Amino acid sequence: MGLFGKSKASEAVEPMDLDAVMKKFDRESNTRIWEGKPKMVVNSVLAIFSLFCIYVTLFTSWLEEIRLTSFVAFIIFIGYLVFPAKKGHQKVNHMPWYDIVLMICGTGAFLYYTANAMTIIQQGSRFEWYQIVIGIVGILSLAEVCRRSVGIPILIVAGVLILYALIWGLSNPTLSGKLNYTVRYLFYSKEGIMSTPINVCSKFIVVFIIFGAFLERTGIADFFINIANAFVGGFSGDPAKVAVVASAMEGMVSGSSVANTVGSGSVTIPLMKKTGYKPEFAAAAEASASTGGQIMPPIMGAAAFLMADYVGVPYSNIVVRAILPAVLYFAGIFIAVHLEAKKEGLRGLSKEELPKLKPLLKQVYLLLPLILLVYLVGTSQRSIQYAAAIAIIVAIVVSLFNKENRITPKRIWEALAAGGQGMITVAAACGVAGMIAGTITMTGLANMLINGIVALAGNQVMVALVLTMLCCIVLGMGVPTTANYCIMAATCAPILIRMGVPTLAAHFFVFYFGIVADLTPPVALAAYAGAAIAQANPMKTAFTATKLAIGAFIVPYVFALNPAMLFIDTTGWEIVSICITSLVGIFGVSAALEGYFLRHMTWYQRILSLAGGLLLIYPGLITDALGLGCIIIMVVMQMVERRKALAEA
């Protein structure tokens, strides 16, 4: 994320090495140090890669095997150029000889496939020994790029599954036979590296990553946080509310919960501490809001495109159905920080400290690229790729009206380079996620897992949902959004579909619980990044963030059991009713967890509020009536107690 504009409210930000925080919690930030002419050369390679992706996506009809293998070859090449073998101090303008060898061998392996695609397709299962060696080199080189840019957790999952295939999972009697089959399946077929994740990445996600790089340079991040400050900055606990609103808006274009946490948290967390929030709560509020950015339409951490492909519905359909769950998630956090501010007696910033709304409204044109993108995709007037390309051009045009962030030819080149670098992590993760899905398919492990959990759950859908949730959280720890969803879609979603959960609801369920792994201890990377900025206890921050993000743990169960929340088989009136009752319900749940509404709640008031909230979130006339009754009783009790307290004062 870019740096935010210097409003008066941000002058209180305490100095901090944000790069150090990013490098500690975000693998993508641990890059080589290139300066001078070498930096120009590397940036040129990255920019050329972005142009290559745009050209291939929009203007060619290459054979899929040629398009995908050339794309991955480029990823391998720039991956080794950008990412060193390990963290720590790097020599300036230095690349070890072994990295050069790995880069050449890995790139060459995929380019061999590119150059001989037709021959490889026609030869069926008859592969020479050297082709198997080339496949092994390609698989290992991609895995190493993934380790450097993404981290070890996803590789542990892939490695364990491949070992399972080589030792027990395949019926071939010899190890060499199993190895040959595994390499053919993962490297040379469309069921492994070249499967859905990398295909969607190369067709759709890359263009949006480039779009995000251009949008960032228009100054939209500055606009988001300043407009949030202007609207909610004067209320109780304003910096926390600014964090929620700004992170929700940034999440529309951001693909990283850690980057979102550090980007907006560098401003909001110190301000939250200044106005009286405890360090753990300040860090947790930012981390939970930033993680929620991954479920916010229209981008959803780029997983929206993958979900559309997996489920077989239009992208616009995914975006529309994601709106209410995302709104409930952010509403829950917003209500929680408001009640925390009231409970602690915190005030907002003074008018003098807040940015003026009128000058900010003059910058509303910065939203035009995003609005146009949503319109073009939502109305299906253009393909997703063309819509993103048009949005990039519009982003360049709107920047011309902003002197501070005008996109010059030099900045266009920088944006292309930033987009190219941003693709490495996503593509590497998608490639390894494809290997994971491929291994599960070729060994039949998917059916074994599905049958095992279905048998364990019996006919109880709730039991299957709980077991699936635990699988998603464990498998999602430390894994980027896109790869995270790919793994969940291959391993966990079929379990719920077998149990009778609608396909779309099942995919949303596993997506949500894969995302909250960034907040859930022990591997809560977004929470730990926020804790580093706030100088707070990391584990306390993670538990507080989990409490604030309670909507992400409740809402998926609701739309899995009753898909009306995803607007499936509902009327217009039912949609309005569901929106209203769900928002009141999330208020009840948040108030119960905070233990405060008009005053501190008693234990039985918290139970009433929690029960009423859960009943209201679940769609249905009876549950709505019961839930509303519980909430009304709690509110009346709070009003009576407050009136008594005021009379006695």
What does it look like?
- The protein is globular and about 90 Å long.
- The protein is built from 30 helices and no strands.
- By secondary structure, the protein is an all-alpha fold.
- Helix content is 73%, strand content 0%.
- Residues 1-15 have low confidence and may be disordered.
- Among the domains are: 22-201, no CATH class; 570-649.
- α2 crosses α19, α13 runs antiparallel to α15 (315-344) and α15 (315-344) runs parallel beside α28 (572-594).
How does the SSE layout of this entry go?
Layout: H1 18-25, H2 36-59, H3 64-82, H4 97-115, H5 117-122, H6 129-149, H7 153-169, H8 175-188, H9 196-216, H10 220-232, H11 238-250, H12 257-274, H13 279-292, H14 303-311, H15 315-344, H16 357-361, H17 368-378, H18 384-399, H19 409-443, H20 445-457, H21 461-476, H22 481-491, H23 493-498, H24 503-515, H25 525-534, H26 538-548, H27 550-561, H28 572-594, H29 603-617, H30 621-648
Mean pLDDT figure: 85
Order of helices and strands: HHHHHHHHHHHHHHHHHHHHHHHHHHHHHH
CA gyration radius, whole angstroms: 25 Å
Helix content: over 70%
How much of the polypeptide forms β-strand, as a percent range? under 5%
**Largest sheet report:** none
Distance between the termini: 50 Å
Question: Unreliable stretches, pLDDT < 50, 5 or more residues?
Answer: 1-15
Structural class: mainly alpha
